[in-house]
Amino acid sequence: MTEWTSGDLRLTNVTKRYDTFTAVDQLDLVIPRGSFFALLGPSGCGKTTTLRMVAGLDQPTIGQIWIGLKDITETKAYQRNVNTVFQNYALFPHLSIIDNVAFGLRRRKVSDHKAKAMEALELVQLAHIATKKPGQLSGGMQQRVALARAIVNRPDVLLLDEPLGALDLKLRRQMQIELKMIQSEVGITFVHVTHDQEEAMTMADTIAVMNAGRLEQVGDPATLYEHPKSTFVANFLGQSNLLEATVKSRDGSIAELDVHGVSLRLPVDRLENGASAVWLGVRPEKLRLVANGSAPDGTGDSNRLTGVVTDASFTGLATNYLVRLPWGQELMVVQQNDGTSRVAAGAQVTLGWAPEHGFALDAKQDAHAGAQDQADDSGAA
Amino acid sequence: MRWIRAHLVAIAGLLVLSYMLLPNIVVIVFSFNKPKGNYNYEWQRFSLDAWTNPCGTPGICDALGLSLRVGFIATLVSTILGTMVAFAIGRYRFRGRSSTNLLIFLPMATPEVVMGSSLLTLFIAMGIAPGTVTILIAHILFCLSFVVVTVKARIASLDPRLEQAAADLFANPFQAFIRVTLPLVAPGIAAGALLAFSLSFDDYIITNFNASPSSVTFPMFVWGASQRGTPVQINVIGTVMFLAALLLVATGQLISNRRAKTAA
Ligand SMILES: Nc1ncnc2c1ncn2[C@@H]1O[C@H](COP(=O)(O)OP(=O)(O)OP(=O)(O)O)[C@@H](O)[C@H]1O
Ligand SMILES: [Mg+2]
User: Fold this and answer.
1) Which of A42, A285, B136, B212 lies in disulfide reach of B131, CB 3.0 to 4.6 Å?
2) Phi and psi at residue A92, to the nearest 5°
3) Distance CA B196, CA B199 (A)
4) Which CATH superfamily is domain A9-226 in?
5) Do the Cβ atoms of B62 and B56 come closer than 8 Å?
């Protein structure tokens, strides 16, 4: 088990079954006190179920949930010092905003509940609408009220179930920044559920990637992105090119891999001990694309592949290419718009990357795991 | 021609409305009549006699009083019981839930004559003499179904996440019910209660089966009186009831309008 300190939220072997269907499968998690933790995964992977178990709205079939040294698995929802910002806010329509925010304080018989509720509303910059009813507010305002209503209780853990899901993109970006600021201001543990990988990466200290009820990988955003441990994480967090490779030799710190007859290099520590068949991964923005003949010596990187550009689309910030390799596979390449000349479709090019930008994944996994979910999500967002 | 076409919907609406309201208007107008004989069927001349002496016909105010009392108690009991049944059916899964659901509908589907006569048979078989108590039992019985159906519809439209949010905000089940569920279901309960009262106040057939000569409700009085003549007081009480109902509906509308304005 991982190290933990008092005040951390811990899930040990938490499993939730509905009849024969397992929604959450043997989850082991330590969420450090005061951290901004994101639970990321595609629709239906069990994120909401996990949150509901932490909130006490659902009971785990097996496993325990702890806050610090206290096992709260059997504690009733209303006795847990945990609050939730619900996916659709769930504000009480018959109560004014201030009464909504003061609801939890009143139940706990906090004496100056009105003043504290006002303070929380000020924190989310909505003090001026305290007497209105939820129905009179815009989605973004309701979202903030829901946040204030939860935060005002200063819970040990604040659970946020896709709190920004219903907002449009611009408001969403703004709220992401605001949420992050509020979190560092109040210092409460935030567990933020999302299926938007960009949101998780910009906001969270630590991300746990879930897939089909199981934990795929936990780590800080940079680690997850640079060193994914599974094809699912590689494809779900950003995009990845995965090449079928066999390990030819390990020589000191560098391993030689064979990819369809081309020799490519990778730091040995990226490889599992004894692995021979792997997916060699490289992110699209790590590839440098040079038209053949334009530069004296291709790209200057030690890993090189040649191919033909089949598609080039200019997005302003960058150009996205698809490059077909001799064995028919197409690689995604993102080239920053740094002033270098762009290449048109049909051009013969060389792709190069530094060996340390590569990563290796077990070849037994599906190379497309997580890719479809990602495409769906960006389409819906 | 074009004017007619443009206002066709409004004209049709007004026609239907006057069709529906004409009887009420006749009742109101004839409450100011001074009839020649026993029957208040022909307009003679304007008079306030009945209005200044509404209890002037023997027995009419006793009957009205009984109807109001029965209506009040039947409404109270059926609303409380019906609300509880509605919550049980709407919120809990238990054995016999769907058959309960079906059985609740039965009294609404049963013809009143059938229900009235079988109730009487039951009371007599049990040795209970017909009277105010049997009327009450009968009224509570048929009001119950309507309350259950009205309240159940409201509960079904309630977002269960609101109660979960209450629990999440430290409200124990009782507090969650009092602070969140009940206020949100209240309009349904109020509608059920209004319906129950008007059904009880209005009922003739079932009541008639289960009444005794000493327990005459207002509808029974009107029917009985009409054999010998129709006192103008009936129109007065009818008018008052109509206006009271109108006032109730109007305030209800006003409140929900205001609520919609502050909540929508
Ligand atoms: N009460 C229930 N009975 C049966 N199955 C359920 C129940 N609640 C959830 N599930 C199933 O458990 C799985 C996980 O659901 P959950 O709501 O946790 O997903 P999620 O990750 O929050 O998805 P989304 O991003 O769409 O909100 C789903 O396949 C869902 O169908
Ligand atoms: Mg969910």
Assistant:
1) B212
2) -75, 115
3) 5
4) P-loop containing nucleotide triphosphate hydrolases (3.40.50.300)
5) no
Options 3.90.226.10, 2.40.50.100, 3.30.70.20, 3.40.930.10; CATH for A239-366 is: 2.40.50.100
Distance B43 CA to ligand 1 centre (A): 72
Taking residue A2's Cβ as centre, other Cβ atoms within 10 Å add up to 10
A109 interfacial to chain B (CB closer than 8 Å) = no
In sequence order, what are the beta bridge partners of A256? A249, A265
State whether B183 and A94 contact (CB < 8 Å).
yes
CA dihedral A121, A127, A130, A133 (to 10 degrees): -80
Classify residue B41: in a domain, yes or no.
Answer: no
A171 close to A140: Cβ distance less than 8 angstroms: yes
User: What amino acid is encoded at B57 in this protein?
Assistant: T
Give the count of beta carbons closer than 10 Å to the beta carbon of residue A313: 10
Find the angle CA(B56)-CA(B61)-CA(B63) to the nearest 5 degrees: 135
Q: Which two tokens stand for residue A88?
A: 């659709």
Nearest to B260 by CA among A93, A319, A291, A120: A93
Q: Which residues are paired to A84 by β-bridges?
A: A159
Which tens digits make up the pLDDT trace of B150-200? 999 999 999 989 999 999 999 999 999 999 999 999 999 999 999 999 999
- Interface contact flag, B166 A94, Cβ < 8 Å: no
**pLDDT tens digits, B78-133:** 999 999 999 999 888 888 888 988 898 888 899 999 999 999 999 999 999 999 99
Q: Residue window 144-163, chain B: list those with CB within 8 Å of chain A.
A: 159, 161-162
